[in-house]
Amino acid sequence: MKKLLFSLSMVAVTSLTAQGSDKILAKVNGKPITESQLEEVLKGLPAKYNSVKNNPQFQSQVLNSLINQELLYQEAKKEGIEKNAKVQRQIKEAKEQILINALLEKHLKISKVKVSDKEARAFYEKNKKRFTDANGKQISFEAVKLFIVQSLEQQKRRQLLSASLNRYIEKLKKENKVEILK
Q: Does the global pTM surpass 0.85?
Protein backbone atom coordinates (compact mmCIF):
# COMPACT_ATOMS: atom_id res chain seq x y z
CA MET A 1 0.00 0.00 0.00
CA LYS A 2 2.82 2.41 0.88
CA LYS A 3 4.50 1.64 -2.47
CA LEU A 4 1.29 2.38 -4.34
CA LEU A 5 0.77 5.70 -2.51
CA PHE A 6 4.41 6.66 -3.15
CA SER A 7 4.08 5.78 -6.85
CA LEU A 8 0.87 7.75 -7.20
CA SER A 9 2.36 10.77 -5.42
CA MET A 10 5.40 10.65 -7.70
CA VAL A 11 3.14 10.55 -10.77
CA ALA A 12 1.11 13.46 -9.39
CA VAL A 13 4.23 15.52 -8.64
CA THR A 14 5.62 14.78 -12.10
CA SER A 15 2.31 15.71 -13.74
CA LEU A 16 1.96 18.92 -11.74
CA THR A 17 5.53 19.89 -12.54
CA ALA A 18 5.05 19.19 -16.23
CA GLN A 19 1.73 21.04 -16.38
CA GLY A 20 2.75 23.89 -14.09
CA SER A 21 5.99 24.82 -15.76
CA ASP A 22 5.75 23.26 -19.17
CA LYS A 23 2.55 23.47 -21.20
CA ILE A 24 1.53 20.21 -22.87
CA LEU A 25 0.83 20.88 -26.55
CA ALA A 26 -0.11 17.38 -27.66
CA LYS A 27 -0.27 13.78 -26.46
CA VAL A 28 0.55 10.65 -28.41
CA ASN A 29 -0.94 7.59 -26.75
CA GLY A 30 -0.73 9.49 -23.46
CA LYS A 31 2.87 10.66 -23.89
CA PRO A 32 3.01 14.46 -23.72
CA ILE A 33 4.78 16.69 -26.19
CA THR A 34 5.56 19.91 -24.37
CA GLU A 35 6.16 23.52 -25.19
CA SER A 36 9.78 23.20 -24.06
CA GLN A 37 10.33 20.32 -26.52
CA LEU A 38 8.97 22.48 -29.34
CA GLU A 39 11.12 25.42 -28.24
CA GLU A 40 14.21 23.19 -28.09
CA VAL A 41 13.64 22.07 -31.70
CA LEU A 42 13.03 25.64 -32.85
CA LYS A 43 16.15 26.84 -31.03
CA GLY A 44 18.22 24.14 -32.73
CA LEU A 45 17.19 25.07 -36.26
CA PRO A 46 19.76 26.71 -38.53
CA ALA A 47 19.81 30.51 -38.68
CA LYS A 48 18.07 30.52 -42.05
CA TYR A 49 14.83 29.66 -40.16
CA ASN A 50 15.08 32.64 -37.77
CA SER A 51 12.53 34.65 -39.72
CA VAL A 52 9.82 31.95 -39.37
CA LYS A 53 10.53 30.50 -35.92
CA ASN A 54 7.83 32.68 -34.32
CA ASN A 55 5.29 32.05 -37.08
CA PRO A 56 2.36 30.04 -35.62
CA GLN A 57 1.93 28.06 -38.86
CA PHE A 58 5.60 27.07 -38.87
CA GLN A 59 5.44 26.13 -35.19
CA SER A 60 2.38 24.02 -35.95
CA GLN A 61 4.34 22.21 -38.67
CA VAL A 62 7.22 21.57 -36.27
CA LEU A 63 4.77 20.30 -33.62
CA ASN A 64 3.24 18.00 -36.23
CA SER A 65 6.73 16.69 -37.01
CA LEU A 66 7.29 15.97 -33.30
CA ILE A 67 3.96 14.11 -33.20
CA ASN A 68 4.91 12.09 -36.29
CA GLN A 69 8.30 11.30 -34.80
CA GLU A 70 6.73 10.11 -31.54
CA LEU A 71 4.20 7.97 -33.44
CA LEU A 72 6.98 6.31 -35.43
CA TYR A 73 9.12 5.83 -32.32
CA GLN A 74 6.24 4.20 -30.43
CA GLU A 75 5.47 1.93 -33.38
CA ALA A 76 9.15 0.88 -33.62
CA LYS A 77 9.11 0.05 -29.89
CA LYS A 78 5.83 -1.85 -30.26
CA GLU A 79 7.27 -3.92 -33.11
CA GLY A 80 10.45 -4.65 -31.15
CA ILE A 81 12.69 -3.06 -33.76
CA GLU A 82 15.31 -2.17 -31.13
CA LYS A 83 15.95 -5.87 -30.48
CA ASN A 84 17.33 -6.34 -34.00
CA ALA A 85 21.12 -6.90 -33.86
CA LYS A 86 21.80 -4.44 -36.69
CA VAL A 87 19.69 -1.76 -34.99
CA GLN A 88 21.43 -2.38 -31.64
CA ARG A 89 24.80 -1.93 -33.36
CA GLN A 90 23.61 1.32 -34.99
CA ILE A 91 22.32 2.61 -31.63
CA LYS A 92 25.66 1.79 -30.01
CA GLU A 93 27.58 3.53 -32.81
CA ALA A 94 25.30 6.61 -32.66
CA LYS A 95 25.72 6.83 -28.89
CA GLU A 96 29.50 6.58 -29.22
CA GLN A 97 29.54 9.32 -31.87
CA ILE A 98 27.36 11.60 -29.74
CA LEU A 99 29.70 11.12 -26.78
CA ILE A 100 32.78 11.73 -28.94
CA ASN A 101 31.26 14.91 -30.36
CA ALA A 102 30.39 16.14 -26.86
CA LEU A 103 33.93 15.38 -25.66
CA LEU A 104 35.49 17.23 -28.58
CA GLU A 105 33.14 20.17 -28.07
CA LYS A 106 34.09 20.30 -24.40
CA HIS A 107 37.84 20.18 -24.98
CA LEU A 108 38.31 21.75 -28.41
CA LYS A 109 35.58 24.44 -28.22
CA ILE A 110 34.70 23.97 -31.89
CA SER A 111 31.23 25.55 -31.67
CA LYS A 112 32.69 28.71 -30.11
CA VAL A 113 34.10 29.70 -33.51
CA LYS A 114 32.70 33.02 -34.68
CA VAL A 115 33.14 35.07 -37.83
CA SER A 116 32.98 38.85 -37.56
CA ASP A 117 31.08 41.09 -39.95
CA LYS A 118 34.45 42.45 -41.05
CA GLU A 119 35.70 38.95 -42.01
CA ALA A 120 32.46 38.21 -43.86
CA ARG A 121 32.60 41.52 -45.71
CA ALA A 122 36.26 40.90 -46.68
CA PHE A 123 35.33 37.48 -48.06
CA TYR A 124 32.43 39.00 -50.00
CA GLU A 125 34.62 41.73 -51.51
CA LYS A 126 37.32 39.24 -52.48
CA ASN A 127 34.77 36.89 -54.10
CA LYS A 128 32.21 39.37 -55.44
CA LYS A 129 32.09 37.71 -58.85
CA ARG A 130 30.71 34.53 -57.24
CA PHE A 131 27.71 36.40 -55.84
CA THR A 132 25.55 37.12 -58.86
CA ASP A 133 22.02 36.03 -59.73
CA ALA A 134 20.95 34.09 -62.83
CA ASN A 135 20.94 37.33 -64.85
CA GLY A 136 24.48 38.23 -63.79
CA LYS A 137 23.30 41.00 -61.46
CA GLN A 138 25.36 41.52 -58.28
CA ILE A 139 23.74 40.14 -55.10
CA SER A 140 24.12 42.49 -52.13
CA PHE A 141 26.32 41.62 -49.17
CA GLU A 142 23.32 41.78 -46.81
CA ALA A 143 21.50 39.17 -48.90
CA VAL A 144 24.36 36.66 -48.66
CA LYS A 145 25.90 37.66 -45.33
CA LEU A 146 24.32 34.81 -43.33
CA PHE A 147 25.43 32.26 -45.92
CA ILE A 148 28.99 33.64 -45.88
CA VAL A 149 29.17 33.69 -42.07
CA GLN A 150 27.89 30.11 -41.80
CA SER A 151 30.30 28.91 -44.50
CA LEU A 152 33.30 30.64 -42.95
CA GLU A 153 32.41 29.38 -39.46
CA GLN A 154 32.13 25.83 -40.80
CA GLN A 155 35.50 26.22 -42.54
CA LYS A 156 37.11 27.55 -39.34
CA ARG A 157 35.62 24.65 -37.34
CA ARG A 158 37.09 22.11 -39.77
CA GLN A 159 40.50 23.79 -39.58
CA LEU A 160 40.39 23.96 -35.79
CA LEU A 161 39.27 20.35 -35.56
CA SER A 162 41.96 19.09 -37.88
CA ALA A 163 44.68 21.07 -36.09
CA SER A 164 43.53 20.29 -32.54
CA LEU A 165 42.23 16.75 -32.87
CA ASN A 166 45.58 15.11 -33.56
CA ARG A 167 47.21 16.94 -30.64
CA TYR A 168 44.37 15.94 -28.35
CA ILE A 169 44.52 12.29 -29.42
CA GLU A 170 48.31 12.21 -28.94
CA LYS A 171 47.84 13.65 -25.44
CA LEU A 172 45.27 10.95 -24.66
CA LYS A 173 47.60 8.23 -25.99
CA LYS A 174 50.33 9.42 -23.61
CA GLU A 175 47.93 9.47 -20.66
CA ASN A 176 46.39 6.06 -21.37
CA LYS A 177 47.58 2.54 -22.04
CA VAL A 178 47.24 1.72 -25.74
CA GLU A 179 48.38 -1.67 -26.97
CA ILE A 180 48.46 -2.71 -30.60
CA LEU A 181 48.23 -6.48 -30.83
CA LYS A 182 48.88 -7.69 -34.36
A: no
